[in-house]
Write a structure and sequence with these properties.
Blueprint: E1 2-7, E2 24-29, E3 43-51, E4 60-63, E5 76-79, H1 81-103, E6 110-115, H2 120-132, H3 148-151, H4 158-167, E7 181-188, E8 192-199
Parallel strand pairs: 6-7
Antiparallel strand pairs: 1-2, 3-8, 4-5, 7-8
Helix pairs in contact: 1-2
């Protein structure tokens, strides 16, 4: 069993505009090893990871409240939003491409991308850049479900809650079928990137 949970409300500074989108959430899944036909069977097809942990390690950090005169000993989650955005736009599309290339599945066969719900504009930019790496100017309209406008950024919980919203039928216009290939992708504090391709 793999579990991801966050209670970011404990460390959110209500006076910090960059923290307003953070939320609480949790997700869990059970994985099981099985022998399947590698060409057609369901399961994990490939993975790609990347870490940049020098200056990038401090793009998210703990700092004092933005409220004037607040106790400097009380720390809250802080983010260099522009730095995170630039990092994600530069590195995440390539990691996602590396993952898909390892899977042996073409970009046109990719049905959905479940990407970390950090920032809708950033996520849209990442997907566009990944498709451009394949010389594709258009991104399929239904490839990237989003729920950040409903649930916010719950860090490690965003991908599982997004996935659940699709498989449970809560995301209008989004569904999955046997044989579909999807990608799960995330970027976060560290900075760290993960991408996994999966066939249903």
């Amino acid at each position: 069993m793999i579990i991801g949970t966050e209670t970011l409300s404990r460390v959110v500074d209500v006076y910090d505009r960059d923290s307003m989108i953070f939320s609480d959430g949790a997700g869990a899944c059970v994985l099981e090893y099985q022998e399947v036909d590698e060409a057609t069977g369901p399961g994990i097809l490939s993975a790609s990871v990347a870490s940049h942990c020098t200056d990038e390690a401090y793009y998210l950090y703990l700092g004092k409240s933005n409220f004037p005169g607040s106790d400097p000993r009380v720390r809250y989650i802080k983010m260099k939003g522009r730095k995170v955005y630039e990092y994600a736009m530069q590195h995440v599309p390539q990691a996602m491409k590396d993952c898909l290339d390892k899977s042996g599945v073409g970009i046109d066969a990719l049905k959905k991308v479940f990407i970390h719900q950090a920032n809708e504009k950033m996520d849209e930019g990442i997907i566009k850049r990944m498709f451009r790496l394949y010389d594709k100017k258009e991104v399929p309209a239904s490839i990237m479900p989003m729920n950040i406008h409903l649930l916010g950024n719950s860090s490690v919980a965003t991908v599982p809650t997004l996935y659940h919203s699709v498989v449970s039928g809560a995301q209008e216009g989004h569904s999955l079928h046997s044989g579909d290939v999807v990608m799960f992708a995330s970027v976060g504090a560290g900075m760290n990137i993960n991408a996994v391709s999966y066939r249903f």
